[in-house]
Amino acid sequence: MSNSIERRLKELTKPQVQLLKELRENRYLAILSEPCAQFGDWSGKDNFSINIFPNSIFQLKFLSLIYFEQINDINLRWDRCRVSKLGKEFLDENT
């Protein structure tokens, strides 16, 4: 792992680490990515013990700790957040 990535991982906030932990427990969190009136709405935010901010999710994605998995529900496309292999390794080493 490069030094810049290691430095960024060390700069994760406690809520970001908590979000990653809870996602690893298979808690459901998805964003509606089908063009419609509710485009960009998040589903599953109430499944978490912390407030979830999109910037935290995108930071975890930028660091490759999570990825989005496309799912379809009632003909709508959702992108579900999943913990990546790197995210699991990070949690195993730091929690």
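(ticket continues) Second input and output from the same batch:
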Amino acid sequence: MLKPLRFVSALAGAVTAANVLLGYMTTPEFVAPDILVGIILIAAALCPSPLWAWRGLVFGNAYALGVFSVALAARMQPGGVFNPGLVAIIIVVAASLAVLLTMRSDIR
């Protein structure tokens, strides 16, 4: 089960970093946190050790969930523009984190 979670996390990290690098980022305050999300998720997904990959994916997905939640909260203020892609990535990251935390006993 760790292999699909590695793929999903790497994809989420790559999409997040690509949005910043391609100039789709509209809020400059989130440039550095989003780049970090991309780096952490991709690095954790590529980690050869299953235990260290699991730890990195838990950390990366939790960090991503925090960054994306703050971004969503900022967009929900009056005058903010709703971003369905942001909601979708929050759902993916939260689901990945939930699955990772339930499989803790399987990783050794």
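Agent notes: The radius of gyration is 14 Å. The CA atoms of residues 44 and 52 lie 8 Å apart. Closing as not reproducible unless the customer responds.
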